User: Fold this.
Amino acid sequence: VGAEKINTDIVTLTRFLTEEQSRHKEATGDFTLLCHALQFSFKSIAYYIRRATLINLIKFELTGLAGSSNTTGDEQKKLDVIGNDLFISAMKSSGRVRVLVSEEEEEAIVFDEHPQARYAVVCDPIDGSSNLDAGVSVGTIFGVFQLPEGAKGTKEDLLRPGTDLVASGFTMYGASTQLVITMRGGTVNGFTMDNALGEFILTHPDMKMPKKRAIYSVNEGNSMWWEEPVKDWCNGLKYPEGEGAKPYSARYIGSMVADAYRTLLYGGIFAYPADKKSKKGKLRILYECAPMAMVFENAGGQAVNSKMARMIEVVPEHIHDRSGIFMGSYDEVQKVIDVHKKHG
Ligand code: AHM
Ligand code: MG
Assistant:
């Protein structure tokens, strides 16, 4: 130990949630329990991703590790299936979730065994999974809605704008596991998983993103399909006018949680616009765009769709509905909005 200064008053996610709950006199504790179940799903997904990466390296198959095999028994169970199963089972066993939407599931999952449960959870259990084999960071994106008493968990309970979310956030399974979480109208808090303690530690309290930063993050390979205002905006960043003006830096990982996490910390803008080929964009409103929009707004940034409407106010037409999105530092998103206004 010696001269090393040891913090003996660590704020874990568990402690943070307990303190949050005691600040809300009317709280029943149901939401806190739901958050504990979320926490467990993040920990277990992080664990399996780390383990699978290692196992892949030494050429084992995932079947045995996943603890179950499919009909042929020898085909490996994909990590996104494992992540999805871990998430569903954690939500179901919490007893607090009435209905769940996962990117991996065509239909919403209604937990009729918990008819009194008052929450709906939306998630992408492992976003960016096409990057997994290259060891690139992936993550879980989630959102929580509160349901009216006696809700049956129908689709209508879920086709709501992000402004109805009571909590949202995402994890990033990278060099370390990061968790970013925010509650409606609250601050954004970042936690880092301490593997030795098995706890998420509050390392980034009250995250506020830089008001501007010359970094843009977009798949420019799609630019031949972009609409004029989007092309105009991007060219403006690369070929700025005026004496001594410097162009923006490009950063694109292709894994939303990783691009979002960097953008939150360093500032800049992340975009996945709708275009002539993908008229509705690529990313999903309910469990990708809306939760991220809430995080970015609560951190002082902005998030809009391709029509320049506030992303968090968009109501999806169906649970897997998509949207274009621009999210990031306040001034950087404002630039996009201004260019679109100019085009009328
Ligand atoms: P996924 O949900 O199938 O993983 O797709 C979402 C991912 C995001 O993480 C990322 O921002 C985007 O797709 C990248 O798309 P592209 O490869 O078209 O640039
Ligand atoms: Mg996804």
About this structure: The chain has a mean pLDDT of 92. The pocket of magnesium ion (ligand 2) is lined by residues 103, 124, 127, 288 (CB under 6 Å). Helices lie at 13-23, 30-57, 63-66, 79-94, 228-238, 256-266, 285-298, 330-343.
